[in-house]
Amino acid sequence: xxxxxxxxxxxxxxxxxxxxxxxxxxxxxxxxxxxxxxxxxxxxxxxxxxxxxxxxxxxxxxxxxxxxxxxxxxxxxxxxxxxxxx
Length: 86
Hints:
The chain is mainly beta and 86 residues long. The chain contains no helices and 5 strands. The termini are far apart. One of the primary rRNA binding proteins, it binds specifically to the 5'-end of 16S ribosomal RNA. InterPro entries: NA-bd_OB-fold (IPR012340), Ribosomal_uS17 (IPR000266), Ribosomal_uS17_bact/chlr (IPR019984), Ribosomal_uS17_CS (IPR019979). This is Small ribosomal subunit protein uS17.
């Protein structure tokens, strides 16, 4: 069978919590245009992401990538840390 190269979804967000071992909570914000009024509204989603080396700290900006289900809520993996928190 031929291999199909599927591109995985990526999101950029900031780390909100790193209390768990090998896991972080990443908050991803985006602007959505209101259907009726046309005003832009900020919406945010929190994702549980796998961080196997425990490198992420609160406030870091990270790039997360979709992966297979790792636990009940964990379906994302930290790909890179874009910016370290001060």
